[in-house]
Amino acid sequence: MDTRLNSDQFERLFRYRIVLTWSIPPVIGLGFILFIHIFTFEQMLTILTTPLEPAFIFGWLLFAPWYLGKRIKPVVEFLKTNGSGSEEPALQAMQDFPLRYWSSFLIYIILAPSSVILSAELYTDFTATATDWLRIHMVAVIVSIVVGLPIFFSILDLFGRALQGVKLRKPHITLKTKILLIGALVPLLIDTMIVQYYWSRTGYFTFETFIVWLSLELMAIAGSILFLRSIGRSLTSLETVIKRDREPYNIPDNESVPMTTDEIGVLISDHTELLNDLKIQRDVLEFRNRLLRDGGNSADINTSIENILDLSRRALDCDHVFIFVHDRKKKVSRCIAISDKGYSEQGHIVLPQSNSSIMQSMRNTAEVIRVDDATGNEVIQQALSGYEVGSLVIAPLIIENEVAGAMIAARRDVRFYEARDEAIINGLAQETGIIVQNHWLKLERQRTTAVRRDREARISLLLDSTSEAIFGVDLEGNCTFVNQSCLHMLGYDHEDELLGKNIHAMIHHTRPNGEPYPKEECRVRLATLAGKDEHCDEEVHWRRDGSSFPVEYWSHPIQSNGHTIGTVVTFVDISERLEAEQALRRSEERYALAQEAARIGSWELNMKTNELIWSETIEPMFGMQPGEFSGSLDDYMSRVHPEDIEMLQSSLSELVGLKNTFETEHRIIWPDGSIHWMAGRAKLYRDEEGKPDRLIGIVQDVTKRHLAEVELALHRHQLEKLVDKRTLELKAINQELEAFSYSVSHDLRAPLRSIDGFSQALLEDYTDKLDEVGADYLKRVRRAAQRMGVLIDDMLQLSRVSRRTVEPTEVNISDLAQEIGDELSKQHEQRKVEFHVEPGLIDHADPGLLRILLINLLANAWKFTSKTSSPRISLTMEQTAHGPAYVVADNGAGFDMRYVDKLFGAFQRLHGMDEFEGTGIGLATVQRIINRHGGSIWAESAVNEGARFYFQLHKTEFANVQDKMEGSHA
Questions:
Q1: For residue 477, what is the DSSP state?
Q2: Hey, how many other C-beta atoms are within 10 angstroms of the C-beta on 217?
Q3: Distance (Å, whole) CA 63 – CA 686
Q4: Is 156 exposed, middle or buried (0-12, 13-18, 19+ CB in 10 A)?
Q5: pLDDT category, 969, cuts 50, 70, 90?
Q6: What is the largest CA-CA distance in the chain?
Q7: Which of 101, 91, 239, 100 is nearest to 170 (CA)?
Q8: What angle do helix axes 130-162 and 88-123 make, rounded to 10 degrees?
Q9: b/e sequence 316-344, b meaning 16+ C-beta within 10 Å
């Protein structure tokens, strides 16, 4: 018997048969054409050596295996998975194969004679007649079909051998078709060929005719043998099932698999599936009977569970068995039993019922779940931590038609579970569910007995604990019971004061308007006699002291054996509710007044009927008289400005489809033609199914605001034009100032250089002609000219700082200050100054301006410590009352704080020129740079005790620190 093909064998045999299908017909067909003398040998040789016919034959030999091989790829992929993948694509590919095979093959048959005749006419002296066309086409059709049909059925047998065990839903090819081809079609085609040849060639039966007939007959016999072999394959599995003299359960699986894809293959497939189901059911019944025998006589849950665990391990050949039950209250799953630990009411393992839990998966599917390889499953490994789990199968515990837990059989190694394993654990889980359910019922009966004993006490406690007043009456209206709330509301101390007395005469004797309320007309009594419920919120009850209070009450008849024996009445004091309703009415009146004053209106749209309801304040806002609005959405939309209708409809569509709130502003047209602006805001409410139900919103007349916005826009436009004009003017002024600065710098420096140069020349060339006073005068002239040059430089620098564009970037202040300190040390090598810079000071500022700022501050400190014995200069960051600030400190001459307001002014000096040189521009420049960055600077000092300059490059919560400091010294 053939065995099942693997993917490589199937693909190799399939391609081999396809190549035979497209190679045998041209060999036999061209041989027949040569034999019956349609072509001469020389013509046939020419045809086979020209490009057309070989290209046609070899082209199809390449195309057919590629095309049909691509179409049966799903079968190959299914075989590569050893049958564990989805069989649907493979079955569909098998069903589609005949159509694809014969469509391409018939195209080949139709084109083949034409390629032969065209090659003959193009490359030989042959000229085809109508008879030649007919004879060649008949040869091609007969030979191709006689060859193609057996190979086709051979390919179908390949499908049967490859897809053994796969459930066939319908025959791929029927037995009727096979028998028809064997018994009728092939002989008919042979006879047709003989008649065609006899009439068209010889006119009588000759030896040549005999040879043709014999060849075709041999081909037909070979085809018939292939057909019979295919039918034999169909009968093999059926004969095995029929002839085996044994129990049907004991037939090996590999002896009853379908070998073909016809009706018998479908029958064997169904029979095999049914046989497997019977085997599984037999095994399940056997295990369940053993379970009942072992645990049926045991009333102890521990013994029953232990029997289940032991039988499950033996039946499923597993290492561990777990039984989980769901705890709905705590939303966890408890493992109440493990094969190596037995039963535990509290649970050996507790798992949360999260979406990632295996217990949650079981509750969602309620079907058997198998995991053949659980080594990489983190959820399973975490849930069953402490146990080595390589594979497992899970079955649901069904209790009262709900999944109440799960039964898990696990192995340490990886295992492929079969349908038998699933059926066995499912059956054992059902029995386990019954045992657990019986145990729960037993516990429930015990709890019910305890509940029944204290039910009366609970009812009494409930009646006394509720805030609602409750009493009961019999058919005569006499009180049968009363709770504490009722006694409290009515002003009684003990229930004996009401029990047995006519309740109507005690608390219900007068109507709300003060008229007597006869017992015969009492609505509670009438409802009791009629056996109906009654509800009323328009009456009063009377207290023991004679006062009354409004109540809402409900009465319900008490039934016994289908007869009314009394009534229970519940009532509440509604004094506070009536006061709240009255307050609500007053609030609504105030709300309506506020809407009218603010020109705000409210509305409600029924999304299902398009009915629109709005407040009275809206109609005047729309220029209508009261009652003029029809109450429909179309009427509202007809009053909207035509240019805003589309926008408003789009907002409503987005509201319904995407969100629940919207805001919009649109124009409306009053009946007098004037245009007004309305601002609207609304919220969508949906029904229980999530569909739009109601749209509630407000609308406000914002015409005045829009007019103000238009006017403001005009003013803004005019202001922008004025700003542009002023900007151009300022730019021109800056250009003029730049030119002036250049002119000042150039025009003033020239005469100063002349004064300094000629003075130096006089000192050098006429020293012997000048006395000491004259030389001193020239030296003073030179110093004045040089000081004037420095002053001009400082003034220009101050001007450039004011006009320069600030381009902030990240600057390392520590590195920059250290660099400036090194430069000062090199310029004054004779001085030894202790210079300290705090490392890591980084800020966001203009690098060029910051360098000028630090040069001025550090040079000042260097200058004013020139007369100090041990000079010290430092740059640090300190936390001040005004926030963090940089501090440049020295131990030099210092200054008097009385004159601090002059410190940052241009040309302001607190020391004489004979003490310290300078122009008085440096600190003014520093302040300009600080202002350009939006920061603050201030100083602290004392005479001969040094100075401390604090500066911040950016705004802090103290907007102007310097102003505060100067104000404190004013």
A1: S
A2: 14
A3: 62
A4: buried
A5: very low
A6: 163
A7: 91
A8: 160
A9: bebbbbbbbbbeeeeebbbbbbbbeeebe
* Structure tokens given for 827: 């310029």
Two structure tokens written together for 949:
């300059």
Which residues fall within 8 angstroms of residue 609, CB to CB, at 6 or more apart? none
pLDDT band of 959, cuts 50, 70, 90? very low
Which amino acid is it at 659? K
Greater confidence (778 vs 534) lies with 534
SS3 for 775?
helix
Residue with tokens 């003989």: 194
pLDDT at 179 over 60: no
Q: What per-residue confidence (pLDDT) applies to 887? A: 92
- DSSP code of 495? G
Q: Decide the pairing of beta strands 600-606 and 612-614.
A: antiparallel
Report the 3 state secondary structure along 233-270: HHHHHHHHHHHCCCCHHHCCHHHCCCCCCCHHHHHHHH
Task: Average the pLDDT over each of 349-358, 640-649, 715-724 and give the range with the smallest value.
Answer: 349-358
Residues in CB range of 676: below 8 A, 6 or more apart: 621, 623, 667, 668, 670, 701, 703
Contacts for 497 with CB less than 8 Å, ≥ 6 apart: 487, 544
Tell me what pLDDT residue 886 has.
92
Query: How far, in Å, CA of 440 to CA of 694, rounded?
Result: 49
* Residue labelled with tokens 């960051």: 877
Over residues 14-31, the pLDDT tens digits come to 888 888 888 888 887 787
pLDDT tens track for 642-665: 888 888 777 777 766 656 777 778
Residues 6 or more apart whose Cβ sits within 8 Å of residue 246: none
Q: Nearest 10 degrees: CA dihedral of 530, 536, 538, 544?
A: 80
906-915 long-range contacts, CB within 8 A, separation 24+: 906/798, 911/864
Using CA atoms, how far apart are residues 938 and 933, in angstroms rounded to an integer?
15
What single string gives the DSSP state of each residue in 287-315? HHHHHHHHHTT---HHHHHHHHHHHHHHH
Alpha-carbon distance 160 to 153, whole Å?
11
- Cβ 928 vs Cβ 798: under 8 Å: yes
| CA 58/CA 65 separation, integer angstroms | 11
Is the C-alpha dihedral spanning 242, 248, 254, 259 positive or negative? positive
Residue 297 pLDDT greater than 50, yes or no: no
Give the integer Cα–Cα distance in Å for 888 and 627: 81
What pLDDT sits at residue 958? 39
Task: Check residue 869 and report its DSSP letter.
Answer: S
Partners of 569 in the beta sheet?
471, 555
Determine the Cα–Cα distance for residues 667 and 547; give it in Å rounded to an integer: 60
Instruction: Please compute the mean of the pLDDT values over residues 452-470 and round it to a whole number.
Output: 69
Cα distance between residue 811 and residue 374, in whole Å? 59
Amino acid at 309: L
Q: How many CB atoms lie within 10 A of CB 442?
A: 12
Joined tokens for residue 717? 């436009």
**What CA–CA distance (Å, rounded) separates 403 from 366?**
6
- For 317: left if phi > 0, alpha if psi spans -120 to 50, otherwise beta; the answer is left
Q: Which string of b and e fits 908-933 if b means at least 16 CB within 10 Å?
A: ebbeeeeebebbbbbbbbbbbbbebb
Helix or strand (DSSP H, E) at 812: strand 809-812
Residue 512 pLDDT level (bands cut at 50, 70, 90): confident
Say if CB 921 and CB 797 are below 8 A apart. Answer: yes
- Looking up tokens 């046989």 gives 275
For residues 676 and 639, the answer to whether their CB atoms sit within 8 Å is: no
Pick from 104, 30, 17, 111: nearest CA to 67: 104
